[in-house]
Amino acid sequence: MSQVEQIPRALISVNEAARVIGVSRSFAYELVASGHLTSVRLGRRVLVPVSAIDDLITRNRVDT
User: Fold this and answer.
1) Angle formed by the axes of helices 50-59 and 14-21, to 10°?
2) Which residue, among 8, 29, 6, 35, has the nearest Cα to 17 in the 3D structure?
3) Parallel, antiparallel or unpaired: strands 45-49 and 40-42
4) Which pTM does this prediction carry?
5) How many CA atoms are closer than 13 Å to the CA of 48, on its beta-carbon side?
6) Environment class of residue 35 by beta-carbon count within 10 Å: exposed (0-12), middle (13-18) or buried (19+)?
7) What are the pLDDT digits (tens) for 12-48?
8) How confident is the model at residue 2 (pLDDT cuts 50, 70, 90)?
9) Computed over its alpha carbons, how large is the radius of gyration of the chain?
10) Angle in degrees, CA 16, 45, 41, rounded to 5
11) CA distances from 48 to 22, 38, 57 (A)
12) DSSP letters of the chain?
């Protein structure tokens, strides 16, 4: 039996990013359009760097 090695992804779809941060697909696209969530366009696809999610959280953290 061979094991398939998982390669960490550097980019995820906007839909996947929406699920990760717990917002709707349309709101995730709004974040991309406004520049609050960094994105990369490859052809017709809009992808989000995984690191951009951490950046978004860090920038919007509320200290209580």
Assistant:
1) 40
2) 29
3) antiparallel
4) 0.83
5) 28
6) exposed
7) 999 999 999 999 999 999 999 999 999 999 999 999 9
8) low
9) 14
10) 105
11) 15, 6, 14
12) -PPPPPPPPSEEEHHHHHHHHT--HHHHHHHHHHTSS--EEETTEEEEEHHHHHHHHHHT----
Residue 47 near residue 40, CB atoms below 8 Å = yes
- Output the six-digit token pair for 16: 């996947």
Pair of tokens at residue 42 = 């490859």
Question: What are the tokens at 26?
Answer: 């349309």
CA–CA dist 49, 40 (Å, integer): 7
